[in-house]
Amino acid sequence: MARPARQSLMSAPSTKRPRGHPRHALGRAAAALFLATLVALPFAVLYRAAVGRSLQDSWGWDSLPSVEASEEEGSEGDDLDSEDLKLERVLNKASMEDNTVILTTLNAAWASPGSVIDLFIDSFHSGVRTSSLLKHLVIVTFDWKAYEQCAKIHPYCFALGTEGVDFSDEKRFLTSGYLDMMWKRLDFLRSVLEKGYNFIFSDADIMWFRNPFPHFYPEADFQIACDHYVGNATDLRNIGNGGFNYVKSNERSIEFYSFWYLSRLRYPGYHDQDVFNVIKHDPYVADIGLKIKFLSTTYFGGFCEPSRDINKVCTMHANCCIGLRSKIHDLRIMMDDWRSYLSLPPNLKRLQTLAWRVPQNCRFSMVSRITHRINLDRCLVSIDANAIALT
Ligand SMILES: *[C@@H]1O[C@H](CO)[C@@H](O)[C@H](O)[C@H]1NC(C)=O
After folding, report:
1. Distance, CA 233 to ligand 1 centroid (Å)?
2. Atom of ligand 1 nearest to the CA of 232
3. Among the atoms of ligand 1, which is closest to the Cα of residue 236?
4. Alpha carbons 337 and 314: distance in angstroms, whole number
5. Distance 173 CA to ligand 1 centre (A)
6. How remote is the CA of residue 292 from the centroid of ligand 1, in Å?
7. Ligand 1 mean position to 275 CA, how many Å?
8. Is 259 exposed, middle or buried (0-12, 13-18, 19+ CB in 10 A)?
9. Burial of 50 (0-12, 13-18, 19+ CB in 10 A)
10. Whose alpha carbon is nearest atom 6 of ligand 1?
11. Pocket residues for ligand 1 (CB within 6 Å)?
12. Which pTM value belongs to this model?
């Protein structure tokens, strides 16, 4: 497949479908869509029935998002353009000299006092040289309650418009409300790249213990933490986790985010992260020229694969964990572990015998999470293989 010309990459980055040789691309897309529909439809129907929302509800919401409120004042009567300007203003205020911001997203369930967002902010204060990074953090809120709570605890908040959809409840993993929220987040991140800002996106259930910048790869466009790391940063068999990534704004990353976001239509009912772990193999991603690096769980760990060396750990994610109560329970223990480590004298800190006491409540969901992932991977990879064979 020919690499698309520079100009076409930039002309309409938000709406374009990838294209290579027109006949092949069309045939392939049609075959992929057909097969994807064949395989996914029964699942989708079962799944929608299970979560009790009609197709129309979730698809009706699929229209383009708007940005609803500002970092400071209320949004009544503001039009889209001025809201866009407000996003630019908050990004501008929070960004580092090289136009990099740290972003996280928040809904009401994660915002209440003592909940995930408080632990997140606390981790920056108790991390090693991480508190100064807070001035580059923008908290993107999904609902009004989260916005109000954010405004109480942090200077840079941005309300992402939700057009009547209420994202404030706890979203159980893989319910349709959860999926809507995840895809909306991805589309928002694309818009940040289009504005020329690089970002570290971090889920709020990731504790920051050390500054991650020294462990990033200078030449990469897109770097992502892993649920499972195979020991080689360029190996596509690493299982990326969408909850933590560092992305440079350039034509390759913008095109990749557009492609990723569009791919939700090919794999209905799936999580952005699961779709990432399929499309990372797509030849189009190589055509774009996107330089991907997977981050080692030695530095960027989580409950799926904990960082084994507390002397090296930068971040720890409450991944492989379903349910807010379990998450908060284990995050608190993890923060306690970190504080006990910090209080040790230097000679004891270096001892390798230190281990996390987590996951505890989160442990049991790990199996189902990984099983789900493996099934999905198999299913989708075989769809892709068939699609290629048919063209
Ligand atoms: C890492 O993975 C890449 C891509 O799969 C491969 O080309 C390279 O040889 C691997 N490096 C090592 C040291 O195994």
Report:
1. 8
2. 1
3. 5
4. 14
5. 33
6. 13
7. 23
8. buried
9. exposed
10. 235
11. 232, 234-235
12. 0.75
Least Cα distance to 273 among 328, 324, 335, 317 occurs for 317
Nearest CA to ligand 1 atom 4: 235
pLDDT tens, position by position, 281-338 = 999 999 999 999 999 999 999 999 999 899 999 999 999 998 899 999 999 999 999 9
What is the Cα–Cα distance from 84 to 237, expressed in whole angstroms? 38
**Token pair belonging to 355:** 């281990």
Q: Which of 181, 199, 191 is nearest to 254 (CA)?
A: 191
Q: How far apart are CA 14 and CA 8, in angstroms?
A: 12
Which residue minimizes the CA distance to atom 5 of ligand 1?
Answer: 235
3-state secondary structure the chain: CCCCCHHHHHHCCCCCCCCCCHHHHHHHHHHHHHHHHHHHHHHHHHHHHHHCCCHHHHHHCCCCCCECCCCCCCCCCCCHHHHHHHHHHHHHHHCCCCCEEEEEEECHHHHCCCCHHHHHHHHHHHCECCHHHHHHEEEEECCHHHHHHHHHHCCCEEEECCCCCCCCCCCCCCCHHHHHHHHHHHHHHHHHHHCCCEEEEECCCEEECECCHHHCCCCCCEEEEEEECCCCCCCCCCEEEEEEEEECCCHHHHHHHHHHHHHHHCCCCCCHHHHHHHHCCCHHHHHHCCCEEECCCCCEEECCCCCCCCCCCCEEECCCCCCHHHHHHHHHHHHHHHHHHHHCCHHHHCCCCCCCCCCCCCCCHHHHHHHHHHHHHHHHHHHHHHHHHHC
Task: Give the Å distance between the CA of 122 and the centre of ligand 1.
Answer: 38
Number of residues assigned to the chain:
391
Confirm if 280 and 292 have CB atoms less than 8 A apart.
yes
Q: Which domains does the chain have, with CATH numbers?
A: 77-299 (3.90.550), 315-363 (no CATH)
For 123-156, how does the pLDDT look when each residue is reduced to its tens digit (9 = 90+)?
Answer: 999 999 999 999 999 999 999 999 999 999 999 9
